[in-house]
UniProtKB/TrEMBL annotation:
Keyword Amino-acid biosynthesis carried by entry: no
Family stated for the protein in its record: Belongs to the centrin family.
A GO term for molecular function: calcium ion binding
GO terms under cellular component: microtubule organizing center; myosin II complex
Keyword terms, alphabetized: Calcium, Metal-binding, Repeat
Domain EF-hand: 29-48, 49-84, 86-121, 122-157
Cited PANTHER family: EF-HAND SUPERFAMILY PROTEIN, MYOSIN LIGHT CHAIN 1, 3
InterPro entries: CALM/Myosin/TropC-like, EF-hand-dom_pair, EF_Hand_1_Ca_BS, EF_hand_dom, RNA-helicase_DEAD-box_CS
Name the record gives this protein: EF-hand domain-containing protein
Keyword Metal-binding: yes
Length: 157
């Protein structure tokens, strides 16, 4: 692995947009940050990390047991986290296309409309099976959480 430094040409555009929050950290000069600084950086990037999540991340990245992580490790983890976040946003955009009546749920009617618009030849029974498979709380409709879960399970995103 090559050491990525701010300003080097080997960074991808998505990595470059993550660098500024790291640069603002006081530990940057040493090339490492501690747990507190990691939490600050994650919050600056729009994440609300839980204590358990932070501990797990640090233990995975801090192989030497110093309590600090390198810029490279930070960059790798945040690149992964940002791609997960982008994926969630894309899935929620798709959810909103189904939820044209803006109820916060996908009903049988919503699903049937989308299937017809896409030219899908699905029976009412098949459409209902799709709703039933995703519907975890048994209310007969699919909410955002259920939709996210189903889309991730199918590996479409």
């Amino acid at each position: 692995a090559t050491a990525l430094q701010p300003g080097r040409q080997s960074e991808t555009p998505s990595q470059k947009k993550k660098v500024p929050s790291f640069v603002t950290l006081k530990g940057y000069k040493s090339g490492t940050i501690d747990v507190k600084e990691l939490k600050v950086a994650m919050r600056a990037l729009g994440f609300e990390p839980r204590k358990e999540e932070m501990k797990k991340m640090i233990s995975e990245m801090d192989k030497e047991g110093t309590g600090k992580i390198s810029f490279n490790d930070f960059l790798a983890v945040m690149t992964q986290k940002m791609s997960e976040k982008d994926t969630k946003e894309e899935i929620l955009k798709a959810f909103r296309l189904f939820d044209d009546d803006e109820t916060g749920k996908i009903s049988f009617k919503n699903l049937k409309r989308v299937a017809n618009e896409l030219g899908e030849n699905l029976t009412d029974e098949e459409l209902q099976e799709m709703i039933d498979e995703a519907d975890r709380d048994g209310d007969g409709e699919v909410n955002e959480e259920e939709f996210l879960r189903m889309m991730r399970k199918t590996n479409l995103y």
